[in-house]
Amino acid sequence: MSISTSSTPGLREAKKKATRKALGAAARRLVAADGFDAVTAEQIAAEAGVSARTFFNYFETKEQAVLSGETDLGTPESRNLFVAGGPTGDLLIDTFVLADLEGSLGEDDRDDLRQIMEIGRKEPRVLAAILTRAVAQEEQLAALLVRRRHGDAPAAADRTRAALLMGLMSRVVFAWFEDESLSLAQHLVAIRQETAALVAEPTVPMVPADPTAATTPTPVAAEGIR
Fold first, then answer.
1. pLDDT digits (tens, 9 = 90+) for 121-162
2. Boundaries of CATH 1.10.357.10 in the chain?
3. Which end of the chain, N or C, is less packed with Cβ atoms under 10 Å?
């Protein structure tokens, strides 16, 4: 399976991406060296060679700088394509394209992910920021799924699909993080096959330990009822 996910960004977008990446790298270096509380936004900006004003053009908080990635899922163009049912009509592949994992993650990003996870283990506020971003992107995906099926509001099924799809995207990233021999797209194919095999497994019905317990009501003494 061949999956094409990224386009060549314009010069302005490339510069913005480079600045965001530099700020994120500076934030992680300083936090790893000095601790989260000891680092300020101004120090991060100076470490990255930009002004404090530039820092706040990209991030509202230090936590966001440590994570450094985009908060929104995809771009306006990729979201519109997803809502229209594209680019392939396959929901899992289309979510992979929407998230633009191959466009946003390169070989040098493995060290960044490792740093983020290490900082998250030590700093509760960074861990909270990771979880907050994940929940926000899951909700965003649920809303996009509603639009994709021309619905009015997210239903339980949309939220379930969004949670499953985002979980699979996370699994793709961690598989790529652990195994450098395959690309993100190749890991997606492997995990898709694993998921299909799991869903195809026969369901074993659960049998109560005491079959009579599920069908026989517990008697109540008459004098206990008022």
1. 999 999 999 999 999 999 999 999 999 999 887 789 999 999
2. 70-200
3. C
- What sign does the CA torsion over 78, 79, 81, 82 have? positive
Terminal CA-to-CA distance of the chain, rounded, Å?
70
The domain covering 8-62 belongs, at the CATH homologous superfamily level, to: Homeodomain-like (1.10.10.60)
Q: For position 222, what pLDDT does the model report?
A: 44
The topology (CATH level 3) of 70-200 is Tetracycline Repressor; domain 2 (1.10.357)
Cα distances from 204 to residues 3, 102, 198, 201, 208, in angstroms, run 36, 38, 13, 9, 13
Residue among 72, 110, 78 nearest 95 (CA): 78
User: In which residue are the tokens 């985002």 written?
Assistant: 166
Report how far residue 192's alpha carbon sits from residue 205's, in angstroms, rounded to the nearest whole number: 25
Handedness of CA 108, 176, 70, 111 (dihedral sign): negative
| Distance separating alpha carbons of residues 120 and 156, to the nearest angstrom | 30
For 169-205, how does the pLDDT look when each residue is reduced to its tens digit (9 = 90+)? Answer: 999 988 988 888 888 889 999 998 888 888 777 766 6
In the chain, ranges of CATH 1.10.10.60 domains:
8-62
Mean per-residue pLDDT over the chain, rounded: 85
The DSSP call for residue 220 is -
Q: Taking the CA atoms of the chain, what radius of gyration do you get in angstroms?
A: 23
